[in-house]
Structure to design on (616 residues):
């Protein structure tokens, strides 16, 4: 927080946005009042703005010694000590801690004692355990309350999010940063205080999350792991659940700012930097072995026979990572020349490992590379990184919304593939049914009729399902993926010696034939929209959303703001940030996330199809 913002209403919009997100996700936090050495800085104004703007209860753990140009240190209210930084120190590393004494600092000691007593009363009001202590043996003299007891109580209050510890300093000159780091470890939750459901199933076995991947030109991929349980050592073989592969960690490093220190082992609660994991991507779950993950799944009661439609065993195992939503935008990307295509492929492969929300596919008709991302800004950032980090000047096609398709009625289709390659005959005859399903499913639900031979199914199930999934990647209307569809295989005859590739090709062709026969429907992505705006600008925001086919669910009051919550089609909010900024003079913020896919009305669908076909 910038303490030079003396007027209470002058707050950076991004600060308020971050605070609201922390409220929403119930994240404990502390405040650091920065730039105390800046002209016009006011500690009291900043504290008051926390009360007024953030509607939070500040717990003053420090007081500044001087303000603006006279700022030279802070007072630790809890321990009644002063921390003074050497004015001649350029980096702020040199400071001394001294107890406050009546003889040398009578005025500062009096202010600190009053602040400490007020802090004790605040914490006692918020924490029953500490209140019992205060009203018991220390009721006569608050000065006798040990600093450790007060710190423990502040820790509990911070975790309960009933108040916010406040510290101050000047980060640029490193003044107050050291006690800030101490406060982070002292008052914010440690890894042991965060409970994750999946940990009870892994017990003491290794479970870690690859939360970041970097590519180093000398050392190759660097994978940052957060260790939830167990231990990691160099040369340890690990199993990647998402990639269903086993790799070996060649080196184990402890990241310390921009320095990496080699270390023999790391345990739960630590962040590890690993070298040697060539196939691990951001969001992957790392365990000690495949048997360990299966044992965890058994403990959780999730093991069982693989269901038809599940692509891999990873879907049955417990993952520490988060689910990545499907991309909602896509555009083509081209290298400056054909000779640079391998370089572009390499860059995109690396970026996909670093960013799991980025998807890359090849258009089967045009042969162009297609980028699929979460939004306009996301794709712009990818484009910029390709230029900045890989030195490639690429060209992006127009940004398009990622629609989906489905069918409205049941249809049957049959197909025969009879081909001779060399002296080998490949013969497949198939009969299947495609039908819509009510439950939302991104991938096709695959079923088998009783008449299908179990022996044939056992040998060819993977090839059959690959063919079905391949056919559903491109629908007959827009070439968009098919969803909410069930495929039932009624009959399958395979000539001995027929390759799995031919089986997949025949199944895929038959599914495409069925999809073309059915009545079809385009589905458009509908976004959850949340606009936070002041009362003065509420009306123009609502009027604009009505023109964008928005469906307003409710309007909430949060402190001095109005929060508009509703649904809006993604196609209608392209470039919305610029429009909203203009409508509200930059005072409003908004957040969107994919809600679901919904059928377009016939008129909008017809307009879309005509535009895509070039008729309009």
């Amino acid at each position: 927080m910038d303490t030079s913002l003396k007027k209470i209403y002058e707050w950076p919009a991004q600060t308020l946005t971050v605070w609201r997100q922390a409220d929403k996700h119930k994240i404990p936090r502390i405040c650091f009042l920065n730039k105390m050495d800046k002209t016009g800085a006011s500690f009291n104004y900043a504290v008051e703005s926390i009360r007024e703007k953030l509607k939070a209860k500040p717990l003053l753990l420090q007081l500044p010694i001087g303000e603006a140009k006279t700022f030279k240190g802070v007072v630790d209210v809890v321990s009644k000590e002063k921390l003074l930084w050497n004015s001649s120190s350029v980096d702020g590393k040199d400071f001394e801690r001294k107890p406050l004494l009546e003889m040398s600092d009578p005025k500062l000691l009096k202010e600190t004692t009053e602040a400490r007593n007020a802090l004790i009363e605040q914490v006692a009001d918020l924490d029953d355990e500490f209140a019992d202590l205060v009203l018991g043996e220390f009721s006569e003299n608050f000065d006798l309350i040990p600093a450790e007891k007060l710190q423990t109580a502040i820790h509990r209050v911070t975790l309960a999010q009933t108040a916010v510890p406040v510290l101050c300093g000047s980060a640029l000159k490193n003044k107050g940063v050291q006690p800030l780091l101490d406060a982070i470890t002292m008052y914010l939750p440690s890894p042991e205080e965060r409970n994750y459901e999946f940990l009870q199933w892994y017990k003491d076995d290794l479970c870690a999350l690859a939360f970041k991947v970097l590519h180093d030109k000398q050392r190759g991929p660097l994978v940052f792991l957060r260790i939830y349980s167990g231990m990691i050592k160099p040369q340890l073989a690990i199993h990647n659940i998402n990639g269903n592969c086993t790799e070996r960690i060649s080196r184990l490093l402890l990241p310390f700012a921009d320095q990496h220190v080699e270390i023999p082992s790391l345990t739960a609660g630590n962040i590890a930097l690993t070298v040697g994991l060539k196939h691990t991507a951001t969001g992957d779950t790392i365990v000690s072995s495949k048997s360990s993950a299966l044992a965890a799944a058994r403990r959780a009661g999730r093991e069982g026979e693989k269901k038809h439609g599940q692509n891999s065993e990873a879907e049955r195992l417990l993952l520490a990572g988060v689910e990545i939503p499907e991309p909602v935008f896509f555009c083509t990307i081209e290298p400056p020349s054909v000779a640079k295509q391998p370089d572009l492929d390499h860059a995109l492969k690396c970026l996909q490992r670093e960013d799991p929300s980025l998807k890359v596919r090849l258009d089967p008709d045009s042969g162009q590379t297609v980028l699929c991302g979460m939004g306009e800004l996301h794709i712009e950032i990818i484009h910029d990184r390709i230029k900045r980090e890989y030195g490639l000047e690429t060209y992006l096609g127009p940004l398009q919304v990622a629609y989906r398709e489905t069918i409205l009625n049941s249809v049957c289709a049959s197909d025969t593939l009879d081909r001779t390659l060399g002296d080998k005959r490949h013969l497949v005859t198939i009969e299947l049914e495609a039908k819509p399903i009510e439950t939302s499913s991104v991938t096709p639900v695959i079923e088998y009729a009783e008449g299908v031979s179990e022996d044939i199914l056992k040998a060819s199930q993977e090839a059959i399902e690959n063919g079905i999934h391949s056919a559903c990647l491109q629908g007959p209307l827009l070439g968009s993926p098919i969803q909410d569809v069930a495929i039932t295989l009624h009959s399958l005859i395979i000539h001995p010696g027929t390759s799995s590739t031919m089986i997949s090709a025949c199944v895929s062709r038959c599914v495409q034939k069925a999809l073309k026969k059915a009545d079809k429907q385009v589905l458009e992505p509908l976004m959850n929209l949340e606009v936070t705006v002041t009362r003065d600008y509420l009306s123009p925001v609502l009027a604009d959303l009505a023109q964008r086919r928005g469906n307003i669910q409710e309007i909430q009051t949060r402190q001095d703001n109005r929060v508009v919550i509703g649904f809006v089609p993604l196609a209608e909010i392209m470039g919305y940030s610029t429009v909203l900024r203009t409508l509200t003079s930059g005072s409003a913020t908004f957040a969107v996330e994919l809600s679901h896919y919904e059928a377009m009305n016939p008129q909008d669908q017809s307009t879309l199809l005509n535009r895509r076909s070039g008729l309009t």
